[in-house]
Amino acid sequence: MQVQKVQFSAPRRLDFLNTTSGRRVRKTVIYKDRNYSNSERAQNLLSLMTLEEKVGQLVQPFGWQVYEHRDGNIELTEAFKKQIESGGVGSLYGVLRADPWTGVTLETGLSPEEGAAAVNEIQRYAIEHSRLGIPILIGEECSHGHMAIGATVFPVPLSLGSTWNVELYREMCRAVARETRSQGGAATYSPVLDVVRDPRWGRTEECFGEDAYLISELAVASVEGLQGQSLDQDESVATTLKHFVGYGSSEGGRNAGPVHMGKRELLEVDLLPFKKAVEAGAASIMPAYNEIDGIPCTTNHELLQDILRTEWGFEGMVITDCGAINMLAAGHDTAEDGMDAAVQAIRAGIDMEMSGEIFGNHLLEAVRQGKLDEVIIDTAVLRVLDLKFKLGLFDAPYADPEHAARVIGSEEHITIARKLAEEGIILLKNEDQTLPLSKKSGRIAVIGPNADIGYNQLGDYTSPQPPANVTTVLGGIRSKLADEPERVLYAPGCRIKDESREGFDYALECARQADTVVMVVGGSSARDFGEGTIDLKTGASKVTDRSWSDMDCGEGIDRMSLKLSGVQLELIQEVYKLGKPVIVIYINGRPIAEPWIEDHANAILEAWYPGQEGGHAIADILFGDVNPSGKLTISIPKHVGQLPVYYNGKRSRGKRYLEDDSQPRYPFGYGLSYTEFSYSNLTVQPQTISAGGTAKVSVEVRNIGDRVGAEVVQMYISDVASTVTRPAKELKGFHKITLAPGESRTVEFTVGAEQLQYIGADYKPVVEPGEFRVLVGKHVNDTLSAHLLVLED
Q: How far apart are CA 338 and CA 65, in angstroms?
């Protein structure tokens, strides 16, 4: 097909064919002139487009399907070329993504330099072989690192939240943006702002935790970090807030299940992080798969129009999750067929469809049949074009492969990954000061299915990485004792999910020879690449005629239980019988409830999925080079039967069950240290304020131990009496501070309308006069308390 291309660099008047009347019209062309505003350029470009070109801008095919990689060369597919020439493609999803879904492996995938070159090839063809030369928006997954081979893999968001270090997380986001943009990726599908209500949900690992305030603080940092000072910088990417909204409250913890939530809770809890991120300037947003009170989020006019655009003033792009529009006709069953689903979605406020199948197949015909007004198409296209102009894609569409090779996986970024892993690890138990271990004496047996499988500690939404890029727990311990390798013994013992006990004997033999046993257990979100397994009798890697999938967490992997999978608990129990000190390290994507381990282990570390530097970080903590400072952002129950167990439930939810009370095993905000902190002198000044006034809260925190340590000072607010029922306590402030032994510091908070308000009877924010309690301390159940009286203005 021969494409008549528009070529110019300054304003010109050119003839265009009006596809409706068949007549040629003369129009001014300015969209490639950067002397005009982004809005003017987008409006001008829209006026020049055919209906086919407009619809093309609203579809996002899978990026890994538009090229073939052979012997280091990139060849674009004929199907992609035809799509470009017949109307265009607005965006591509996951050009650089590698995992079993894409079928891209370490061997067939692209290096950092090759990835940038591939994106350039795609962009060049789109620009040079389409009539108007519109660049493609390249969108990539980046929730805890750019999802590409060789990119730095940071800890999963559940671990990032556990650091309570907003500044360090913002720094990570800057690193992720640098890596992604260096390869030509201009949009990221993060951050995940879902509030977790049932940790059986497989996507718990992708979330920061159960508290909307904490999530909001990280949401703002994410937008500021990823988007930088300006989207058109070469180190900035457009954020996509997801999943809008209520996704973490699905029925039974089942992925994309119905959400049963009242409007007040929706406004006060689940929408809060999104609102804060929109106010921070987020560029795009992704509706969730689920329905709320019978209305799918994909077609929820109240959410997408009334709240998002009218109340919040959001002007950015709305893109669906993959397959979400299909669900309207096959899942939610609110649409008769694909065309009906497409029309419903775009009318509700959807601008672009990830996967692009429904929009691509039906929008054009819907307009031709009079089922959809082209003006609605124009509105969506304008938002897509506006984002592309803001990103500077028309002026600088190409990446620098050499720059990508330097930036991706740099030492600077690896240092950030290690620091985050260190601060996200939580010391849950340390009986008789079992930890830290001595570097000078004693043999250590490192046992368990997660001791030496690097991919298991990376979490979901991670591309395969070269083994040398990932340090396992075994590798981290060995590096600490490199001069005495004979002190470290290793046995996998079992797999994550399999029932085989064939590795028990070897594991027990290693444990018998050791002075201390480190059990590395938990879960796996590693998708199956079919690349072999571990010999349970020797611990060696081996290739077999079938692979083992140990995945028991991640998207679509929801569980009925919070217990360890397979025979892991049995392995720990057998090792315990030997009478050796047992340290349990959990590497996992959701809380684990194992009462036997809580009662019998000498020490327990919760590491979540700590990323590529996790092995070093865990070893640093085991041997005392780093003092643990992580705090829980999600309550860990004693038993799955306690769910829901999140800390900020309503006062009226009851005290206990017949078998036990309703308190979690480990509460929100909990985490031990190798030192000890004391709290004193909590003051609120003034003690009486007006509803529009503010008070200063101060508390003295002292390190009364013998080690330098970091403490997360947490402030909670309790409304003593209110017109609408309230949670007993709500987090409204926190500071992470580092103190030397004997050092003290006065930590201050401000309390005002933002900390005291709630969604009132009329569904509007209100600060009600009355008595409040201000609580400050180590975690939600260990606080000092003071009173604050609020009077009417």
A: 23
DSSP assignments along 586-655, one per residue: EE-SS----HHHHHH-SEEEE--S--TTHHHHHHHHHTTSS------SS-B-SSGGG----TT-BGGG-S
Would you identify the CATH topology of the domain 425-633? Answer: Rossmann fold (3.40.50)
SS3 (DSSP) at 775: strand
- The CA distance from 479 to 619, in Å, is 9
Give the residue from 45, 47, 27 showing the smallest Cα distance to 36.
Answer: 45
> 97-132, pLDDT tens digit by residue?
999 889 999 999 999 999 999 999 999 999 999 999
Q: Which fold has domain 12-406?
A: TIM Barrel (3.20.20)
Residue 678 has a CB neighbour count (10 Å cut-off) of 12
Over 661-712, what HEC string results?
ECCCCECCCCCECCCCEEEEEEEEECCEEECCCCEEEEEEEEECCCCCEEEE
pLDDT of residue 8: 53
* Nearest CA-CA partner of 282 in 324, 317, 332, 319: 317
Comparison of pLDDT for 197 and 535, the residue scoring more = 197
Beta-bridge mates of residue 444: 488, 516
Condensed to tens digits (0 to 9), the pLDDT of residues 598-608 reads 999 999 999 99
b (16+ CB within 10 A) / e for 636-670: bbbbbebbbbbbbeeeeeeeeeeeeeebbbbbbbb
Q: Cβ of 505: how many Cβ atoms within 10 Å? A: 14
Please answer whether residues 447 and 520 qualify as being in contact, where contact means their C-beta atoms are separated by less than 8 angstroms: yes
Instruction: Read off the pLDDT of each residue in 511-529 and give the average, rounded to a whole number.
Output: 93
**51 pLDDT more than 50:** yes
Per residue in 62-81, pLDDT tens? 999 999 998 888 999 999 99
Beta bridge partners of 677: 703
Domain edges within the chain: 12-406, 425-633, 677-791
Q: What is the spatial distance between Cα 438 and Cα 484, in angstroms, rounded to a whole number?
A: 13
Q: Is the pLDDT of residue 1 over 50?
A: no
Non-local (6+) Cβ contacts of 748 within 8 A are: 696, 697, 698
Domains 12-406 and 425-633 agree in fold: no
Share of the chain above pLDDT 70, in %: 95
Q: How confident is the model over 215-250, as pLDDT tens digits?
A: 999 999 999 999 999 999 999 999 999 999 999 999
Eight-state DSSP code of residue 293: T
- Of the candidates 99, 321, 351, 460, the residue annotated as catalytic is 321
Residue 644 has pLDDT above 90, yes or no: yes
How far is the C-alpha of 708 from the C-alpha of 665, rounded, in Å?
A: 27
Classified by CATH at the fold level, domain 677-791 comes out as Immunoglobulin-like (2.60.40)
- Is the Cβ–Cβ distance between 767 and 790 less than 8 Å? yes
Biggest alpha carbon–alpha carbon distance for the chain: 90
Beta strands in 691-769, from DSSP E residues, in sequence order: 695-703, 709-719, 730-739, 744-751, 758-759, 765-766
Question: What are 638's two structure tokens?
Answer: 């004693």
321 labelled catalytic: yes
| pTM given for the model | 0.96
Whether 530 has a pLDDT exceeding 60, the answer reads: no
Instruction: Give the SS3 label for residue 85.
Output: helix
Minimal CA–CA distance to 142: which of 408, 477, 379?
A: 408
Q: Which helix (H) or strand (E) holds 292?
A: strand 291-292
Q: Is the pLDDT of residue 698 over 50?
A: yes
Rounded CA gap, 28 and 13, in Å? 4
Give the pLDDT of residue 165.
98
